[in-house]
Amino acid sequence: MVRTENYRLTQLLLEFLEAPAYWACGGDWSDGMGLEPHGVRMEGLVREMQDPENGVPVRSQKQFLTSIPSAFMGECHRYLRCGVNVSGHHGQDTTVGCLHVAGYDLIEWLMERLSIEESVEAVHIANQLCQYGYFFPVNDSKTLTVRDDSSLYRFQVPYLSYYMFQNRTPCYWPWQHRIPDNVEYAIYLAKRTLRNKQRHALEEYEIEALQSLRRNLQNKWDIIQLQAEEQVRLAKERKKGDKIVSDSQERAFWRVYRPPPGCLSSLEVAPVPTRFRPGLSRPPSRKRTLTDLQREVALLRNSLTRTRIKVSSAIENLKSYFDTYVEYDPMFVQPQPSNPWVTEDQTFWQLNSPLLVFQTVEVPTEKRVKRWALSMEELMSDPTGLQEFTNYLRKEYSHENIRFWLAVKDLRHSFQAQIPDKVNEIFKEFLAPGAPCEINIDGKTMEKVHQEMKNPNRFTFDCAAEHVYTLLLKKDCYPRFIRSDQYRNILAAGVQPLQKKWYDSTNFILYLFPYHFFFLNV
Amino acid sequence: MDSATESEHIEKLIKEAESLKIKLEDERQKLNDITLASVADRLETITCINVKPRRVLKGHQAKVLCSDWSPDKRHIVSSSQDGKMIIWDAFTTNKEHALTMPTIWVMACAYAPSGTLVACGGLDNKVTVYPLSQEDDVSTRKKTVATHTSYMSCCVFPNSDQQILTGSGDSTCALWDVESGQLLQSFLGHSSDVMSIDLAPSETGNTFVSGSCDKMVLIWDMRTGQCVQSFEGHQSDVNSVKFHPGGDAVATGSDDATCRLFDLRADREIAVYAKESIIFGANAVDLSVSGRLLFAGYNDYTVNIWDTLKCQRVAFLYGHENRVSCLRVSPDGTALSTGSWDSTLRVWA
């Protein structure tokens, strides 16, 4: 009677626990099952690794126990994988992952498969796969790291095979399984307390976890205890070798999902509803409504009439942008006198602080002044440049244009509540007949401004400002400023900070020949 | 309109959209005269990129989710899963303010152009701004500006302390008036969560770009609220978007383990930055001052540095011990900051 009840409860619990993932996709690998994209790529890679022909050379446990000489390790001594029944024939007798791969075999395989040049990158990828629980170190249940040496690794059970299903062995690949819940964890911990103390004793953090689970899952604890006992009973029926292997796999699995304190799990995801997470398919995107589609069709229609440039000219533009700006890119050319982050010397920042009081205390660097000549946008985005430009125009009695442009820019970025007042102020100062700083715009633009004034908003003067910007400032004032004596004087006075000697030896070459490397072909 | 005619209408529009897309692709293809790779042969290879770790900022108790540089080029604001926002003097590695948020997963934070205001938000669906001052307790002066109907994933001040532009899990972007909390403009067009936004570098251009889990990259007119250009190509969530400093191209990073470059004037994708050995998604991208280097932070804890013009990886940076969640080039281009789920921020130069 107790026996039947036990069995029924176990069945119930199994239904409750078993991830439907594998069965849902018909036992087929290929279905994405809502895998996070890198999950798909990782699983593909691990599957290739386990390929009997072209995968990572595997070694049996026996070899491992009799400590293989390293010369032998390097040799591609392949065994047919008997780890997991990859072909998927149900009921075939299989032995669970009794084979191992060596660290350097793994690394070598990855380097070849992914055309990696430096082994550090392959070690890094191997470590990632290990962190995600695709394989794990045989001799170290605490840390999940891969080393490029003869240390041995065991593959994790990829998915529910028939054999494993019969034996209630869960699948351990992260994305073939939904995130395991606390009931499963409780069963696992409870099971270990029922087994040999020496080999299966719980770690401190696991004891704590068990205690708190016991409190929180009080009403389920009978079932949990029964299930744990059932699993221990089943385990006893297995061969010793299999038992060791499946124990280690189970342990490694929980090492990934319930890491010891202080260790972050790779499987954690942002708690954001629509993003991918292991084992869960992604909720569908919001259903598109009629308005969505109308909007899309309108955009597509507009796009059809768009004027385009050739890809070659687009690339040419990017290239010439680089040619112009490379000397201002600290990643290429060391800033003068030095990069503060590298040398701890903040002179560079002092010389480039936004507002310099020119000709009184500070002088901008030559390089900075040169940059003003690249484009009007460059000049205007440097507060010192803007100040000099405004001074120049004031002397020419034509600074109403730049003042107007700045006022409009300020309007666009003002608090909503200030908008009506500011619109009126700008109109009175620059546009009204007989205004103190009347700007010179054509009748058509003026007409537009009057139209817009009926409904004052932050964009009321945009058309007028654009007119002023392109016609007056950009095509007239700016070129005159760049050709003026004032600009030339500033440029001539511009300081050229000496490149300081700095002792970061690896950067030494760059310091000696800052331009040499990049202007060879420019 | 009854539901039958509406669904007919929808059916019709879907068909029209499909045929328009084919036509559009044809048009774009006509001008696709050359590949980046063929041009790149004429370029010098970048050989001496020498970016090294210079600072480690420790203080968050959990995953760092977002960070932004102050316009003063040395301060950084960062937000974390533990509900904290920290203002760092990255140069000295000192913490100047530590603010506790009413939410965990503070997924976005940003510095205002004046450097005296920061904004942040996340799973609380809100954007909160904090004026920074040395005298008062900063948190007493906080102000909730806006509320979305889902989490706020990204925010940026559009060249002004008075407005803030946000992107959200509710698939919209929105422009808000900081003082009144008034919604100035909403931007509808994405069909899934907006993950990232970036402003066009030119102050006169009123445009910004957004990237979303619907795999699309959209360019918006801030004034009209209209989407003016769209780019397809990524095969998964677009996690990060960034304008090229020249303003004519947009770099993107995606869960599909690629970064891409879309050109606005050529109206198409012009480069894919991918490698067989990169199997994890890219969370954050940024470009160097000249636009030649693309820095990308990945889920596999690394930062890869790409040569945008030669489509080659020129270097990779190891250091973080978990996902790289955010990455920014400093305003003057002298340094790169990265934030990670390992709870630290790092500055590289």
Automatic annotation (TrEMBL), chain A:
<dbReference type="GO" id="GO:0005886">
    <property type="term" value="C:plasma membrane"/>
</dbReference>
<dbReference type="InterPro" id="IPR034483">
    <property type="entry name" value="RGS_Egl-10"/>
</dbReference>
<dbReference type="InterPro" id="IPR047016">
    <property type="entry name" value="RGS6/7/9/11"/>
</dbReference>
<feature type="domain" description="RGS">
    <location>
        <begin position="375"/>
        <end position="491"/>
    </location>
</feature>
<dbReference type="InterPro" id="IPR036390">
    <property type="entry name" value="WH_DNA-bd_sf"/>
</dbReference>
<dbReference type="GO" id="GO:0008277">
    <property type="term" value="P:regulation of G protein-coupled receptor signaling pathway"/>
</dbReference>
<dbReference type="GO" id="GO:0005096">
    <property type="term" value="F:GTPase activator activity"/>
</dbReference>
<keyword id="KW-0734">Signal transduction inhibitor</keyword>
<dbReference type="GO" id="GO:0007186">
    <property type="term" value="P:G protein-coupled receptor signaling pathway"/>
</dbReference>
<dbReference type="InterPro" id="IPR000591">
    <property type="entry name" value="DEP_dom"/>
</dbReference>
<dbReference type="InterPro" id="IPR044926">
    <property type="entry name" value="RGS_subdomain_2"/>
</dbReference>
<dbReference type="GO" id="GO:0043005">
    <property type="term" value="C:neuron projection"/>
</dbReference>
<dbReference type="Pfam" id="PF18148">
    <property type="entry name" value="RGS_DHEX"/>
</dbReference>
<dbReference type="InterPro" id="IPR040759">
    <property type="entry name" value="RGS_DHEX"/>
</dbReference>
<protein>
    <recommendedName>
        <fullName>Regulator of G-protein signaling 7</fullName>
    </recommendedName>
</protein>
<dbReference type="Pfam" id="PF00610">
    <property type="entry name" value="DEP"/>
</dbReference>
<dbReference type="InterPro" id="IPR016137">
    <property type="entry name" value="RGS"/>
</dbReference>
<dbReference type="InterPro" id="IPR036284">
    <property type="entry name" value="GGL_sf"/>
</dbReference>
<dbReference type="Pfam" id="PF00631">
    <property type="entry name" value="G-gamma"/>
</dbReference>
<dbReference type="GO" id="GO:0005737">
    <property type="term" value="C:cytoplasm"/>
</dbReference>
<dbReference type="InterPro" id="IPR036388">
    <property type="entry name" value="WH-like_DNA-bd_sf"/>
</dbReference>
<feature type="domain" description="DEP">
    <location>
        <begin position="103"/>
        <end position="167"/>
    </location>
</feature>
TrEMBL record, chain B:
<dbReference type="InterPro" id="IPR020472">
    <property type="entry name" value="WD40_PAC1"/>
</dbReference>
<keyword id="KW-0677">Repeat</keyword>
<keyword id="KW-0175">Coiled coil</keyword>
<protein>
    <recommendedName>
        <fullName>Guanine nucleotide-binding protein subunit beta-5</fullName>
    </recommendedName>
</protein>
<dbReference type="InterPro" id="IPR001680">
    <property type="entry name" value="WD40_rpt"/>
</dbReference>
<feature type="repeat" description="WD">
    <location>
        <begin position="317"/>
        <end position="349"/>
    </location>
</feature>
<dbReference type="InterPro" id="IPR036322">
    <property type="entry name" value="WD40_repeat_dom_sf"/>
</dbReference>
<comment type="similarity">
    <text>Belongs to the WD repeat G protein beta family.</text>
</comment>
<keyword id="KW-0853">WD repeat</keyword>
<dbReference type="InterPro" id="IPR016346">
    <property type="entry name" value="G-protein_beta_1-5"/>
</dbReference>
<dbReference type="InterPro" id="IPR001632">
    <property type="entry name" value="WD40_G-protein_beta-like"/>
</dbReference>
<dbReference type="GO" id="GO:0007165">
    <property type="term" value="P:signal transduction"/>
</dbReference>
<keyword id="KW-0807">Transducer</keyword>
<dbReference type="InterPro" id="IPR019775">
    <property type="entry name" value="WD40_repeat_CS"/>
</dbReference>
<feature type="repeat" description="WD">
    <location>
        <begin position="187"/>
        <end position="230"/>
    </location>
</feature>
<feature type="repeat" description="WD">
    <location>
        <begin position="145"/>
        <end position="186"/>
    </location>
</feature>
<feature type="coiled-coil region">
    <location>
        <begin position="7"/>
        <end position="37"/>
    </location>
</feature>
<feature type="repeat" description="WD">
    <location>
        <begin position="57"/>
        <end position="98"/>
    </location>
</feature>
<dbReference type="Pfam" id="PF25391">
    <property type="entry name" value="WD40_Gbeta"/>
</dbReference>
<dbReference type="InterPro" id="IPR015943">
    <property type="entry name" value="WD40/YVTN_repeat-like_dom_sf"/>
</dbReference>
<feature type="repeat" description="WD">
    <location>
        <begin position="231"/>
        <end position="272"/>
    </location>
</feature>
